[in-house]
Amino acid sequence: MTDPQSIIHYGGLWLLLFVVFAETGLFVGFFLPGDSLIFISGLLCATKPQLLDTPFLVLLPLLMLAAILGNVFGYWFGKKTGEKLYTREDSFLFRKKHLLATKDFYDKHGGKTLILGRFLPIIRTFAPILAGVIKVDFKIFMMYNVIGAVAWIGSIASIAYFLGKQFPAIENYIGYIVIGLIIITTIPVLMTYLKSRKKV
Question: Cβ distance 45 to 161 under 8 Å?
């Protein structure tokens, strides 16, 4: 069940928080709809409070906390598994190409990857894991982690909430919005991956 509306409708707040946590720290979460889910949760807070019965000013810090804790778990996992990830065989839940694409992005942007990567599917899942693998200082990691979570959640959810309050009818176009978000966020990831392939 990876449809954002279904996740909120059937799982409520707790499933919403778990998905954000999983997508930002478990390599099995790279396929989850993080951006779309955050946008729709902010939109539903404004337009359908009966569906997501959580005040926006409560939802916002909870989502940020889930994103921060997800990254901490990813960092811990990367630190424990280390270089073994580079020799791990591909499986349904793990693709080495995602790790390599993230490394290429990390080589280019350094620690800022933990902030910039929040806005990019796949990169945001593997960035904290890679930070653990290369043993980034935990205090520096946490600084980027918190800034990235606040910027990512705060911007997307707040824009959605504002749009929902100003233009309630926008809720009728959620399907198109989700497709648009997927396209916009996939393009830079695809470009990064193609560049990393050329270097091989």
Answer: yes
